[in-house]
């Protein structure tokens, strides 16, 4: 029904994902099949939901373990909350002021990247670290190992949001969203979701982790093995 409504122009509003996929055609004017549309929607759900929830989980994880970082986030978020009327929504300008919280998100993305990397096909022969990769071969670029390079991130295992303070990492050393033409198109939206979550949570609660040495497993995104139980303490 939706397909007919959209294609027969019975619907005026077609800015949603399903309508766009129903309207999309290839170069010969052929519509996508239903299975292709299902495939794309599932792909986007996994690419957008699981990744963002991983970041949110590890924001909670690291802030619980680093009270001095939590205190700085709280100070920043309370400053923004106090400049707003009750129930007034956050706006783009507020987001721009959350620089410390953005550094926290960057450090979480560096240490616990939700996406582990991807395969890319070499379009030309090239040599990297003494290995020759022939044209046409597929190579897996690893987010995790790139983010642990001590040349660019001294003491790489340490959770330290200040390493992002006032500077951008060198090109292609910090790649949680990939890089180049196929870089994640949802990166700014994801950052927005996480920073709104940080604002809502920190301005109302402090928390502690209930399992201090909870193991982190990879499925393939990292996730605390027991679901990260916490105790919430309202301010
Ligand atoms: C923290 C959250 C996210 C992370 C860490 C993340 C990470 C990534 C990475 C590493 C890639 C592969 C880039 C490449 O191959 O070079 C990717 C691709 C993609 N992401 Fe995200 N992503 C996130 C959130 C989102 C959101 C919220 C959406 C949509 C609303 C989204 C949609 C996509 C799509 C459609 C692609 C495929 C792009 C293409 O192949 O051209 N992602 N993402």
UniProtKB/TrEMBL annotation:
Cofactor(s), by name: heme
Compartment annotation: Membrane
GO biological process terms on file: sterol metabolic process
Highest taxon of the lineage: Eukaryota
Record InterPro entries: Cyt_P450, Cyt_P450_CS, Cyt_P450_E_grp-I, Cyt_P450_sf
Species for this entry: Escallonia rubra
GO molecular function: heme binding; iron ion binding; monooxygenase activity; oxidoreductase activity, acting on paired donors, with incorporation or reduction of molecular oxygen
Entry protein name: Cytochrome P450
Similarity remark: Belongs to the cytochrome P450 family.
GO cellular component terms listed in the entry, alphabetical order: membrane
Sorted UniProt keywords: Heme, Iron, Membrane, Metal-binding, Monooxygenase, Oxidoreductase, Transmembrane, Transmembrane helix
The keyword Kinase is assigned to this record: no
Membrane topology: Single-pass membrane protein
Lineage: Eukaryota, Viridiplantae, Streptophyta, Embryophyta, Tracheophyta
Pfam family, one: p450
Keyword Cell inner membrane appears in the UniProt entry: no
């Amino acid at each position: 029904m939706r397909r007919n409504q959209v294609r027969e122009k019975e619907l005026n509003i077609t800015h949603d994902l399903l309508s766009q996929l129903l309207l999309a055609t290839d170069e010969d004017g052929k519509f996508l099949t239903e299975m292709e549309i299902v495939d794309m929607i599932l792909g986007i759900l996994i690419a957008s939901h699981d990744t963002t929830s991983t970041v949110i989980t590890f924001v909670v994880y690291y802030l619980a373990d680093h009270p001095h970082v939590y205190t700085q986030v709280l100070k920043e978020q309370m400053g923004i909350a106090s400049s707003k009327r009750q129930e007034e929504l956050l706006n783009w300008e507020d987001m721009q002021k959350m620089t410390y919280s953005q550094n926290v998100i960057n450090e979480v993305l560096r240490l616990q990247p939700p996406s582990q990397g991807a395969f890319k096909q070499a379009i030309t022969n090239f040599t990297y670290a003494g290995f020759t990769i022939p044209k046409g071969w597929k190579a897996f670029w690893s987010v995790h190992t790139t983010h642990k390079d001590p040349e660019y991130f001294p003491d790489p295992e340490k959770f330290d949001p200040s390493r992002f303070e006032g500077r951008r990492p060198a090109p292609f050393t910090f790649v949680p969203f990939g890089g180049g033409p196929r870089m994640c198109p949802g990166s700014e939206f994801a950052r927005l979701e996480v920073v709104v979550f940080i604002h809502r949570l920190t301005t109302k609660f402090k928390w502690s982790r209930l399992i201090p040495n909870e193991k982190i497993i990879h499925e393939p995104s990292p996730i605390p093995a027991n679901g990260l139980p916490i105790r919430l303490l309202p301010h």
